[in-house]
Amino acid sequence: MAKKIPLRQCIGCGEMKGKKEMLRVLRTEEEGIILDATGKKNGRGAYICPNIECMKKARKSKGLDRAFKMAVPDEVYDSLTKEIELFE
Description:
Layout: E1 7-9, E2 16-18, E3 23-28, E4 32-36, E5 44-48, H1 52-60, H2 63-68, H3 74-87
Antiparallel strand pairs: 1-2, 3-4, 3-5
Helix pairs in contact: 1-3
């Protein structure tokens, strides 16, 4: 039997992709909303493709707000956008 690849939906474009191809955005109680490069930290996670276009779409459609069921401040989107630029 082939190993099942865990799929996750991008909060920007809405496409289903393998977990390994995406970046995990994490909501923690201590640090707030951060980019989890390891994908292993505890907290509520949402996934996004590692490109600026998806980040723009997520911001426009309030993807993080929906994923975390809370209002996400613009500064968070700004800092995540800067971090994603480093991955591109």
